[in-house]
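Data follows
____________
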Amino acid sequence: MPDLLLELRSEEIPARMQRKAAGDLKKLVTDALVAAGLTYEGAREYWTPRRLTLDIRGVDARSRDVREERKGPRTDAPQKAIEGFLRGAGLSSVDEAEIRRDEKKGDFYVAVIQTPGRPAEEIVADVMPGIIRDFPWPKSMRWGSASREAGSLRWVRPLQSILCVFGPEQGETVVVPFEVSGIASGNRTVGHRFHAPEPITVRRFEDYAAKLEKARVILDAERRKDIIRTDAQTLAFAQGLEVVEDEGLLEEVSGLVEWPVVLMGAFDAAFLAIPPEMIQLTIRTNQKCFVTRRRGESGLADRFLLVANIEAADGGAEIMRGNGKVVRARLSDALYFWNTDQQDLPDLGGLQHSAENLGLDLGRPLDQRLAKLDALDVTFHAKLGTQGARVRRIADLAQALAPLVGADPRAARRAALLAKADLTTEAVGEFPELQGLMGRTYAALQGEDASVQAAIEDHYKPLGPTDRVPTDRVAIAVALADKLDMLAGFWSIDEKPTGSKDPYALRRAALGVIRILLENDIRLRLGGFLPAGDLLSFFHDRLKVQMRDSGARPDLVDAVLSGGRDGAAKDDVVDIARRVAALGALLDTEDGRNLVAAYRRAANILAAEERKDGAPAAAAVDPSRFVEAEERALSSAVDNAQAALSRALAAEDYAAAAAALASLRAPADAFFETVLVNADDPALRANRLALLSRIRSATEEVADFSRIAG
């Protein structure tokens, strides 16, 4: 079967857009082919800094002929209805329609529409211009003289050529002809911008990829990453070094080069006095280079690795010299920031009031920075006051939370006061990504307690689903205080997430609170820290997301949150998680599944009776009215289960509570097999309904079983 090769070559494609753009191209093209009646065996996308490529194998040479029968109105229908049917079916008169008979409804028209198949090349030529014109770039541009014309092509950067060939695995292929904004498709591309800019003629993917590689273009991004990784490790190893891994940078750099050449540069060892994270971020941000360290050591080495896009005649000496010059200049700035942050601020006299108000020691640089943050009246939010006011709230809240999470209240307050102090440092001003980390570093320099240091860095965490959570108890108190203050504050001014919009990352804050509590197994009643009822509901929604991602069933979370005996915690995420786990374990057993079936049967009978007038169930079960042995057995089982449930729930032994419910399965099954609930005797029926009501009540002490799916 034929294959299709497509390449869209641009002046440049930003690295951050390449992977998604290639995936978008694959989906758009394959969806269009399928919609037009073509099938294919497989498709793979490729990308480089200058091209998006699509290799589609086993494409039908022609779409299938389609025969469609479209039923119309009765032959005696109004003329307007018949004319509308003819127009919709593309028929010019009723003579072109068939008449069919329905024994019950009479004669009616049928349009038989024959649509012949089309060659694949014709279909591709039809769909590609629209795909290119409407391509979903996050940012795009117009260029050249045509840019002044309405509707001119927009592309991420100037589109330079389109390659589109179709044909068999062996033999000749053909160009699929189409044009977009004056750029005609063809069978030619070019290689590396500097090494091989001459045109290359290709027939199919295999010789396309081979000729590109000969022309110094590695088409496969994953292979470029492997080359960079391997060559960097080899070059570092030869110098007794190892590369500090950075997958994000590797992904970015692989999108900047078509022919990766790894080189090693150096900087002055004096710069190693700067914290390693600051060195790495400086070199990474400014020059997209990897840092190294001595094998087996934690500190950095004075060597860095850069990835060039060219094999230079001088072996890369000039490239290394130029990059080294920039790196040294940027590290000089970083060293200045580092040294400046450790010195006294020049305006200490104006900070005395803030220092006294917050209980700070102006003899310490980090305390000075917090006093400055407070004195500057930097706005946190127009409706929520200044950063200084927020620091005070977090400190009060952290101190209150500390005994509840097992932390020292004084240390928690100190850590909360200093947590935002590094926001006014030179280092964080230049590299916001270092907030928290620089605060911890400066806290260590001024002799703060180790738990205070950890809390300053970790109070922002977790920043996402894969980020670690704080484990130090002081850090936990401050991290919870920071996030709960955010949530309560923005809820109080009605700035809540809506749809996909969450400008203040409140969903992330709530998930952070939940993960901190769950992963540290901390029992905390959140209700006292959440002033609005719908904020607790917001937490419940986030808890469902978190537990679903952890493998729990969302319907079981619903069941636990909606049910449970009076007083069951709805704001203790650890308790909720334990109850969900116990319920899930119960439902994984045959007894549990059959118990749910028995509950539903009982609940349905009760619901049907409760919809009738009056109160058909007795106020209490009367054992003297039992007729069948199965009634007595079920009543006794419910008595025993209720007693076991009370003991288990009081002890928060949810596995035992689940076992107590499971004990009802066998007697409930026997009851339903033998006993007629809706007996003719009203008193007997009411007594049996009361017994079913006890089953429902017992299950509801653990969860609302009506919420369980399946």
Notes: DSSP finds 25 helices and 18 strands in the chain. The chain has five domains: 3-62+119-214, 66-115, 221-341, 348-524, 582-707.
